[in-house]
Amino acid sequence: MNLLAASGIVSGYGDIEILHGVSLTVGAGEVVAIIGPNGCGKSTLMKTIFGLLEPTDGAVEFQDTDITGLPPHEIVRQGLSYVPQADNTFLSLTVEENLAMGAFLRADGYAEQAEMVYGLFPALEERRRARVASLSGGQRQMVAMARALMLEPKLLLLDEPTAGLAPVFVETVFAQIAHVNAQGIAVLMVEQNARKALEHSQRGYVLAGGRNRFTDASGALLANEEVANLYLGGTA
Amino acid sequence: MIALVVDGIILGSILSLGAVSLTLVYGIVRFANFAHGDLMAIGAYVAFFLVSTVFAALGVPDATFGPLSFGLPMALALPVAMAAAAGVAVAVDRLVFRPMRRRRYAPVMFVIGSLATAFALRALLSIIWGPEFHFYTQALRPALQLPFEIRIKPDQIFILAACLAMVAGLYLFLGRTRIGKALRATADNPDLARISGIDTERMMVWTWGIGAAMAATAGILLGIDSQLRPDMGWNLLLPLFAAAILGGIGNPYGALLGGMIIGIVQQVSTAFLLPTYKPAVAFVILILVLLIRPQGILGSEQRRF
Questions:
Q1: Is the pTM of this model over 0.95?
Q2: Contacts of B188 in chain A (CB under 8 A)
Q3: Which residue of A209, A233, B212, B244 has the fewest CB atoms within a 10 Å radius of its CB?
């Protein structure tokens, strides 16, 4: 059964159309990567799925419920969480307050889920009273993911989770994504780091020019010569 | 000189209360609200209406509290005036600013909208209560003699205490409560707040409500300290902005400090300059801050203006 199904998404900013009819699905528990050149609409797709942009055509369904055009604070209720590429933490708040904000919609408070999330990111527990502005880039990325996990989502959307991180942290982030996925949470990620993203996912979508270009199992995409030449910077 | 410093501290505490609420609103709605001073005046006049007309008609005993110049009627009027100003601010947001947000107007249009609101509110006060001065009470209270030849009226001690208590209350609210943290989160990163499930439109209502209620309190305290005029709030706008920017706009701690500095400097300046130049003093401080440290005393390097 599909957890998320986006079909024929047409979207963009104002009069500028970026996506000209993109479709994708994510199954329960899957890790799916979206790759493609700069400006192909990867981030636009994420924002449209999450209600930050309203599509001019097409539909987004989550667990067979139409969520097209709902505001983000309604979508997050459905079990879908989003980590934007930039500005993905509350810098002036402490780590713990960031988690509390992630759990804003929980009626039962945030303490219990915070313990679970600190289990996934032990480095954060030591810094729980620290303002996020004082943390390193790698730690901030952990805070961003931790915040998104506070509502126990079924699907996590990650926009460029390794962007701007030192190479040593890149592996850590992918390991953390695998760790999150092991909890039964499906992951849909957009990545500039295409090869790594395919190595750490089950299926992949290649977008180009605002349209679907290739859709296949990640291993098959890695082995596909055309994909390798065009998007992975060399032969497989 | 000491007397001027004391007066400055009292004026400064009122300015602080106004500037803290101004900066709170700015942090969330992201534009300079030119109607903030007039929300202060609305609060002051609603309290005046209740104290001078309604409560007298209802037979509320008007005995004053000890050495203070006001009593039970003012204590009852304060929460009503706070609620009234909050209601006005929320209604203005619904009628003026929310439609502008929906249509994604440029930030400068919001400022112009707030300027129009300021004119409208001030005109409303003039139409209802006339352009003349009003006083909460005609009673004169003797000043207390403190050591070091400090003379201070009991009302002024109350004003200082009330302002500090109110600002402290806001800090506790912002730091400890779920809604307070959500307000800070919305000020910090509105997109991420929405993504986290915070209904930022609801946060706007909280912000306008709290900001206007605090402004109304500042207006009433100003009325207790001096007198009521329709342009009482408008005249304070410049010192309020000077205080908020001096402290680092968007930073409530800075606004508290900025308000005190502006208040004291303005009052002390009257020893050397005509009192008519008081607003100019605030203006000069504002220009100096913008030239020397545009992010304000406690502001961070990242500017939002």
A1: no
A2: 90-93
A3: A233
